[in-house]
Amino acid sequence: MVNRTPANEVTERMQLAKVQADEKEPNVWELVVEVAPEEVKRATERLFRQLSRSLRVPGFRPGHIPPGIIKRWVGEEQIRRQILEDLLPDALAEAMEQKALQPIVAPEWRDVEFAENAPLRFVAEVITKPAVQLGEYKGLKLQRVKVAVTDEMLQQALEEVRQDLARYEPTEEPAQPQDRVRVRYQVLGENEELSDDWQSGTFMAGAEGWVPPLPEQLVGRKKGDEGEFTYTYPADYPNAELAGKTVRVRFVVEAVLRRHLPELTDEVVRQELGMESLEALKEEVRRELEVRLRRTVRAAERQQAEEALLQTCSVTVPTPLTNRLTDQLLAETEASLRQQRMSLERWLQSQGKTLDEYRNEVRQEAERTLKLRFILEAIAEREGITVTDEEVQQMVQGEEVDEERLASLRRQLLEQRVMELVLTTAQWEEADEEGKRA
Q: Are 235 and 244 in contact (CB under 8 A)?
């Protein structure tokens, strides 16, 4: 890696031969920039001086290595890349300063033309902050929904506790769905012979989503049973080595474990949960449900306030900015699916959607997110709501995070404070659980 210009080398403000700015759509600027050959020459000579001092070439003293030797030693492409890395950011910064453009995201450049003894030319896309027309954001008329923990909700939660206390005991009967089955198995190529190298695992009989689908083969099997099946991986399977490949799966059932659910009694609650009684458990579960409901209500109230803000305030989001966030959200979805060993194409098939349909959904989400972000920033600016560096640092609690993460945390806290203002100044009308006005 070649270092940038050392601190002891003084650089003058970059001189540009041409800067042309065209607003392609509101807040989206196309900059055509040309750096004079003399500026390129100075940057090239500066780089050669630096390399001459840092390189160690047999037969030459540091600081006295000719440019021709440096080119052969480092490579012309690497030198060209480093010159561009040094020139492009500075040239773009100078061009934006000349045209008084303040980007809200990192500009992107394209159409770079660069050759020795010639001007450096490039085109950059610069996105600036759009204007927000703020409507009435105080005194919004919102509905507050009354919610309460019902007996049905309590019984369902207690059943979940009971399920968590389930125990699995061996049985000689064939496995039923939801039984746990312990097996030894081998995954073999089509012509591969059985070996002594067995793998072990415990699976939920009938469980779907496994590749190969061994758990589905275990329903009806009992201890001591042996079995074999073949499986062909999908052609779009994420692991290219397995995509389209057919394998044989040989397995031996070592044990079938059946689930036994205890009745919730005072004794079971004391032994398993360390609580005084079943009644104490019910009270604790009820409190937890109330906390969840309050959290759900707060989220619903914020969603309602956000929709009201989007109705009363207006802002036009630059198209390239929406495209960038859409691409980012799609990439995050694809990465998450890869971790689950599923391709985006297969997931879309399971959802009954085309890529274009899903992209349109994500684009709408991205545009809404950006609109709301600009509206909340505008309210914060008008109301003087800020977030200090110390408050952001308290959020990370000494953890080392990059600048992008810090900026995200700052924005989250700022938006939270603005929404608190909007919610506390709203005019609330009571409504029942179905959202009808009382």
A: yes
Long-range contacts of 385-392 (CB under 8 A, 24+ apart): 385/414, 385/417, 385/418, 385/421, 386/414, 387/413, 387/414, 387/417
Which residue is it, tokens 């003293």? Answer: 61
| Phi then psi dihedrals of residue 245, to 5 deg | -85, 140
In the block, residue with structure tokens 């290219």:
240
Per-residue pLDDT reduced to its tens digit, 299-313? 999 999 999 999 999
Q: Is 358 helix (H, G, I), strand (E, B) or coil?
A: helix
Residue among 73, 72, 71, 54 nearest 63 (CA): 54
Largest distance between two CA atoms of the chain? 91
Q: Which helix (H) or strand (E) holds 320?
A: helix 319-339
Reading the block at residue 302, the tokens are 């914020």
Quick check: 1 pLDDT over 70?
A: no
Q: Which of 33, 26, 43 is nearest to 97 (CA)?
A: 33
Model confidence over 262-292: pLDDT tens digits? Answer: 999 999 999 999 999 999 999 999 999 999 9
Structure tokens at 405: 């993460």
- What is the pTM (predicted TM-score) of this model? 0.72
In the chain, the domains with their CATH numbers are 16-128 (3.30.70.1050), 167-260 (3.10.50.30), 318-370 (no CATH)
- How far apart CA 29 and CA 265 sit, in angstroms, is 70
**Could you tell me how many residues make up the chain?**
438
Query: What is 210-266 written as a DSSP string?
Result: -SS-TGGG-TT--TT-EEEEEEE--TT-SSTTTTT-EEEEEEEEEEEEEEEPPP--H
Label residue 75 left, alpha or beta by phi (over 0 means left) and psi (-120 to 50 means alpha). Answer: left
The whole-number average pLDDT for the span 166-192 is 92
CB 206 within 8 A of CB 286: no
CA dihedral of 220, 224, 228, 234, whole degrees rounded to 10: 60
**Residue 422: closest CA among 143, 140, 132:** 140
Distance of CA 234 to the CA centre of its chain: 26
* Distance separating alpha carbons of residues 156 and 150, to the nearest angstrom: 10
Query: Helix (H, G, I), strand (E, B), or coil: what is residue 2?
Result: coil
